[in-house]
Amino acid sequence: MNFVKFRDVVKKYDTILTVNHLNFDIAEGEVFGLLGPNGAGKSTTIEMLAGLLEINSGDITVDGFSIRKQPLEVKKRIGIVPQELAIYEGLSARDNVTFFARLYGLSGKLLKERVDEALRFVGLLERAKDLPSTFSGGMKRRLNIACAIMHRPKLIVMDEPTVGIDPQSRNHILESVRELNRLGSTIIYTSHYMEEIEALCSRIGIMDEGKLIAIGTKEQLKKQSGQEERLVFEVERSNAQALSEMTEHPAVKRCEEQAEDKTIEVVVKDSPSVLQDLLFILQKHGIGLRKITRVEPNLETLFLQMTGRKLRDE
Ligand SMILES: Nc1ncnc2c1ncn2[C@@H]1O[C@H](COP(=O)(O)OP(=O)(O)OP(=O)(O)O)[C@@H](O)[C@H]1O
């Protein structure tokens, strides 16, 4: 069943279409990645879904409820982890989560249980009494997550939750996304980091200038880019016989020698099985090997092809 539906969603600032007729669905149980450069319209989309920003036209439904007509039903089902930290520096970690739990109508024993559960989940139970001002940036981000999940929402929306944090907290957050999904929540995760989206998400939407320019599984998107997997061998010398034997291997689609760089580039169908065979051919002809690189198709290249620009400014 399609759990989240975007139907012709438009958001304008003055005359600029910040979100330009979005139409896509997210199934229950998915980890859906929204990938796009800064300013693509990801946060605007998320804020409309969470009912924090008015939609100009179109509608978004969650679990069959319209954000325009039944916003409270939608909000009950969503936990939103905003890009900007939404925690109170003057309240302890526990009091922060408790504050949000009360907003969701939790009270008494259940409230305490859920607050503890959320703090434990993000690895902050031991620091529950401490003020966020004593926390690292990553710990604050984790507290931000605890505040969004204590009511066990069916849909968790995370807007760039790993920007500017240390690698340990980053890994902790990525692992908690997987765990929340295993526990049954559907996840929407926005990022401009291609690697994160690739590692986490079962399906990906690529946004640019307010439009969804591509959608599909990683494999579908990579296929769409028309790229192929390549193995690049840096060799000590070239040998025509070896090259010809490599070309004739049934799992090799193309094989080209770049004589000036002393490299052989091989486009393959299935690298694990063919690699051994190709190494054997080089060895048989006494060709020393300096380096092998495996070049996989990636979403960055797809983005570049579709927009003529890089996903991230370097
Ligand atoms: N309140 C506003 N008034 C006018 N323009 C706005 C407003 N909020 C956002 N925008 C513009 O809308 C566009 C999309 O912004 P948005 O924050 O949704 O992008 P994003 O993909 O989330 O990027 P980032 O990763 O930088 O957050 C940007 O050009 C931004 O300047």
From TrEMBL:
Please provide, alphabetically and separated by semicolons, the GO molecular function terms listed in this UniProt record. ATP binding; ATP hydrolysis activity
Name the Pfam families on file. Answer: ABC_tran (PF00005)
Q: Where is the ABC transporter domain?
A: 4-234
Tell me which UniProt keywords the record has, alphabetically: ATP-binding, Nucleotide-binding
PANTHER family per the UniProt record, alphabetical: LINEARMYCIN RESISTANCE ATP-BINDING PROTEIN LNRL
| Designated name of the protein | ABC transporter ATP-binding protein
Q: What is the organism field in this record?
A: Paenibacillus radicis
